[in-house]
Amino acid sequence: MKNLIFTSLLIILFGLTTTINCQTVENIKVEQAGDFIKIRYQILNSNPNQVFRVTVLCSINGGLQSVLKSLSGDFGDNVVGGRAEYMVLWDVLKDVDEVKSVDFSVRAELLKDNTPKNEENTKPKWEDKKIYLMGSFTQAQDIVTFGIRFAYMGKWGVSGKYVQRSIDVDYNDKVTIFHTGIDLTKRIINKEGFSMHLMAGFNYAAFRADDSDGLDNPITFEMGTIIAFKRIAISFAGSSYKNYFIANVGIGVRF
Asked: Fewest C-beta in 10 Å: which of 4, 47, 121, 135?
């Protein structure tokens, strides 16, 4: 004869059970209802567009954990998310002769998710945009040169520039001035579409003319920053050569 000994019934609940999509079964509550046991639980962060497979497992009288069979209510392969609470009813005496202690766990596996993509998920993830391409302008004294700056930057990165300009100095003579450089970058801000990178490296300045051997010691140290808001990127850098300051400004896009 089967007996349900509720006078010594000890119910033990351990931990949380997490689904494959970070859904969590929580707040498991167990209560006696005659010869039945009610198991109440919640599926956190679920919504009515999701369908779960819910499995109720139990270790009876300290034995191995097994799937309960004589159940009714919110279990199986068609449990819809979004409800405040779910309930499973276990007909105890159909499965066991005697119950002294039980250890329950509830598992919820996401089978289907028809949740509409919200606007936030469709927005560009600007923190993933690491390529920068800018027009670059360098001024030394009263001479402006034009070129490009390219950068590939994540948490760390690298940036390089090349600018050049030819100037007529006499009727039959031209001087070509150019600046090139390479910098190491370090990101210090990356939030809500805005990023800021510090950069430091070396600038090489020179000019070519028929009657000149070029500049003495043309390599100088360069420091600056690159900032971006969403797609627009701007760079500022500076170096010095002898008694004059070399300023470089760039503007372009990141993608």
From this structure: 121
Rounded alpha-carbon distances, angstroms, from residue 55 to 26, 88, 196: 14, 10, 49
CA distance linking residue 42 with residue 50, whole number of Å: 14
Instruction: Count the Cβ atoms, other than its own, within 10 Å of residue 251.
Output: 13
Between 85 and 14, name the one with better pLDDT.
85
**What class does CATH assign to 6-113?**
mainly beta
Mean pLDDT of 215-226: 82
135-178, pLDDT tens digit by residue? 999 887 778 889 999 999 988 999 999 998 877 766 556 777 87
Residue 130: count of CB within 10 angstroms of its CB:
15
Q: Pairing relation of β-strands 10-13 and 101-113?
A: parallel
128-254 is classed CATH 2.40.160.20:
yes
Q: Where are the domains of the chain?
A: 6-113, 128-254
Amino acid at 216: D
Cα(129)–Cα(125) distance, integer angstroms? 7
Euclidean distance between CA atoms 209 and 18, whole angstroms? 72
Q: What is the DSSP letter of 116?
A: P
Q: In what order do the strands lie in the sheet with 36-44?
A: 17-18, 24-33, 36-44, 86-91, 71-73
Q: Where are the alpha helices (DSSP H) in the chain?
A: 119-122
Neighbours of 223 (CB within 10 A): 14
What is the value of pTM for the model shown?
0.50
